[in-house]
Amino acid sequence: MNSAHPAVVIADPTPLVPCHVAVIMDGNGRWAKQRGRPRTAGHREGVKSVRAVVEASAKRGVRTLTLFAFSSENWQRPRSEVNILMELFMSALRGEVRRLNENDVRLRVIGDRSAFPERLQQRIHEAEELTGENTRLNLQVAANYGGRWDLTHAARRLAEDVQRGVLDPGAIDEQMLTSHLSFPDLPDPDLLIRTGGEQRLSNFVLWQSAYSELYFTDVLWPDFDAAAYHQALDDFARRQRRYGKLGEQVETTSHASARGRV
Ligand code: IPE
Ligand code: IPE
Ligand code: MG
């Protein structure tokens, strides 16, 4: 190794590929409306984008992909739309799980599933069992998920432990709270993408997105294809993540050269 040009960097502050990508899949209704079709046509079309992004994630080396499919607030939509979303979820599980399993994808559903129809809960359970040992990609589908629900649920569990006398409130730290949230075993999202033009989190991963890089695009979810996804990943690779430090504290040789490669 040439000491004038150190090539080895122990911790690259900006790995080129995000370990965990989270996506707010928004814009299905508007996509359909633009074509004079019912909103549900947009939801159906959106399944194709899910396939494209799952496939591209596995190819590009993303280890975890979390997709926001249905929020805890989406129950407030018209009953007919909610019903169709539930049916679509059922049929997507039926149609996709075998292929996901063949492609070594582990599927997990996060959110309060107790509100779902019994049959759907059963199907989710079966899909998680079938794919539980897969390792190529962790695919998390957030359904009846809300960031506030996640935090409230964690707070309740901690309070129960205190009440049972097995936890000292003074021992509660950030790590312990994290360990009671929906995906304690996985890293926080590095990149959070929202399609459909809105620039808000809509109660998605609130705690876990503290240091996520945010990427907003006007592309509507059914139009979000592999190329659009690669554009978001390329944008991420040009970011500098500082976590409160100064730019020069995190800047490294490999970082600069990595940027040059993008
Ligand atoms: C996102 O698309 C899908 C869900 C929230 C289930 P929308 O249905 O919100 O589509 P827009 O935002 O109305 O276009
Ligand atoms: C966020 O989209 C939820 C999902 C994509 C599942 P919404 O369409 O529900 O968000 P708002 O209502 O515009 O904030
Ligand atoms: Mg929307």
TrEMBL record:
One of its GO terms (biological process) is regulation of cell shape. Keywords: Cell shape, Cell wall biogenesis/degradation, Magnesium, Metal-binding, Peptidoglycan synthesis, Transferase. It catalyses: 8 isopentenyl diphosphate + (2E,6E)-farnesyl diphosphate = di-trans,octa-cis-undecaprenyl diphosphate + 8 diphosphate. InterPro entries: UPP_synth-like (IPR001441), UPP_synth-like_CS (IPR018520), UPP_synth-like_sf (IPR036424). Mg(2+) binds at residues 26, 213. GO terms for cellular component: cytosol. Binds 2 magnesium ions per subunit. The active site is at 26, 74 (proton acceptor). GO terms for molecular function: ditrans,polycis-undecaprenyl-diphosphate synthase [(2E,6E)-farnesyl-diphosphate specific] activity; magnesium ion binding. Homodimer. Belongs to the UPP synthase family. This is Ditrans,polycis-undecaprenyl-diphosphate synthase ((2E,6E)-farnesyl-diphosphate specific). It comes from Thiocapsa imhoffii. The gene is uppS.
